[in-house]
Amino acid sequence: MADVRRAAASPPAVHVLDVDDLGPTGMAEVLALAERDPATLAPTLAGRGVALVFEKPSNRTRNSSELAVVALGGHPVYIQGHEVGIDTRETAADVARTLACYHAVLCVRVLDHRSLERMAAALDRAGVAVPVVNLLSDRAHPCQALADLLTLRQCFGADGLAGRSLAYVGDANNVWRSLALAASMAGMATRVASPPGYGPSGEDVALVRSFGGELLVTTDPAEAAAGADALYTDVWTSMGQEDEAELRRAAFAGYAVDEELLGRAAPDAVVLHCLPAHRGEEISAAVVDGPRSVVWRQAANRLHAMRGLLAWLTGGGRP
Ligand code: CP
Ligand code: NVA
After folding, report:
1. 75-80/49-54 β-pairing
2. Is the pTM of this model over 0.85?
């Protein structure tokens, strides 16, 4: 009974549905933790579980999350979406309430971002201080953005991001949104070039700019890439959009990150891609496999970023 009373009195958890939920200070703390020697982090998950629910496939996110939990002494439980059936077997709220009975953190990859919002709201309403972390939704991919910022800090220095420019060429999708927010929160200037109809919403543009970072929106990849310190792209067809693949291939023709576009960027520009990549579509093989590509560093940083985020969320590792 004592445990029940304590849980009901807990302050609400910080849910990370997108990277701006951390705020600039929280993000900087997470990145600092991610850069720490793991041996110096407190085992804040010792004896505790972390639920990893996936409604869509994953390679990087699943593996990095499982190992990040283990690094903090915890026990990851991988759950495929159909097993818990969010809003099919039971409501998103009931899935969250149930998982929170066993786990210290709920990490969830969803088809519909609103499922995450409803899970977080249900826990807050019930006074259950268990954070919900977005492992990718149709709207956002904050864990990827944290790894991307870590990668950019490795390339340009932890204090070297402010004033640098990051050009994203392609679909202004979940990855773009979180990346642009994180980069803006770190003081970078961002540019996004997308075909008409695939650019960012006015609301997202305003949100990115609200953190102070410049954001150039264009339909011209050459304008976005000109002199940029970093070039980023992602798939033209995200998970769940497979029916639109043909239409999108046509719409995005001319938006590939290839050697010609890279030639317009700064001489020492780096190239990022969250992966999985489609060589010959959004990025050429020569670029993704070339000397300016940091995609494998990004992939490796998924683990460090996730370990930093989980340490931050569970308290003991805060600097
Ligand atoms: N970048 C990324 O999230 O990869 P996965 O879909 O393989 O997890
Ligand atoms: N935008 C892509 C990212 C995959 C990691 C998708 O949502 O499928």
Report:
1. parallel
2. yes
